């Protein structure tokens, strides 16, 4: 489906069948992801060797016990490896969320960070950090380490449903309304977040300031255990949306004629995006532009078919976030630059390029 129609936010251009090219691209991205993960094991202030790690994993020989010193073993296995896994999960989640939102709204400008979804998740996360020991203490007692991602998920879920309800009328989504509503929801969430930050103590304030810039510095196996299952469930659900999103690109009426349950598709897509974004924001803070850069690049390369676009987005999102994390760890070593600054520095110019390339899309 949609093998020859180029998705262009409501318009269409005819291109050749890119299925074989898309499959080859996905295979190449999988190889690049493995290589990038190995590179990330080495990148950093310490000179711990990724090859030594691989040899130690692959060999049961006692003679290789000295391949890594105790210090390097802690750096690689307790600091870098959780960080790499978290970067893969979050990069995949943000990229797939962007692709699903763009398919749902039928516009390549949709992005969790730009339309207020991430802001809603941030509000839930900040509320949990500040109020977790008081107002939300009963909730924290019930859900334990899952409290933060669950509340962030609820915040992003509410934002996404509000955005969809405001921007869609009679089955048609207004691009201008979507962006303006996203700005309004983001501003409201930012105001409430600011009020919570005002209530925070000094230690919470320091943590929140760094967290809001986006960072993987606090990656631990506990955080992976808290957010990983939610993100993994969202990633596992996303491929089942591919056929419906392909049909939805033709319009809701056409999708209904094709037998696609449009309303159920919307509900599942919104919950999937909210879960992925909420759990990601809860552990990493604000990391922007991954959701708009990755799907847009891949749509230019392999076409709009979501059967290939979604898995390719997951792979490329992971690769880009791993590279951004490597830059953040090395560019000002031994200090660390928040990863949100790196992604914004790359993503903001790219977003401006999209606007210039699609000049007139925001004309009211």
UniProtKB/TrEMBL annotation:
Phylogenetic lineage: Bacteria, Pseudomonadati, Pseudomonadota, Alphaproteobacteria, Hyphomicrobiales
Pfam families: FecCD (PF01032)
Source organism per UniProt: Phyllobacterium phragmitis
Designated name of the protein: Iron ABC transporter
Primary location recorded for the protein, binned into one broad class: membrane
Lipid bilayer topology: Multi-pass membrane protein
Keywords, comma-separated and alphabetical: Cell membrane, Membrane, Transmembrane, Transmembrane helix, Transport
Compartment(s): Cell membrane
InterPro entries for the chain: ABC_BtuC-like, ABC_transptr_permease_BtuC
Biological process terms in GO annotation: siderophore-iron import into cell
GO molecular function list: transmembrane transporter activity
Family to which this protein belongs: Belongs to the binding-protein-dependent transport system permease family. FecCD subfamily.
Annotated TM spans: 20-41, 81-101, 113-137, 143-163, 175-200, 220-242, 268-296, 308-327, 339-356
Gene3D superfamilies: ABC transporter involved in vitamin B12 uptake, BtuC
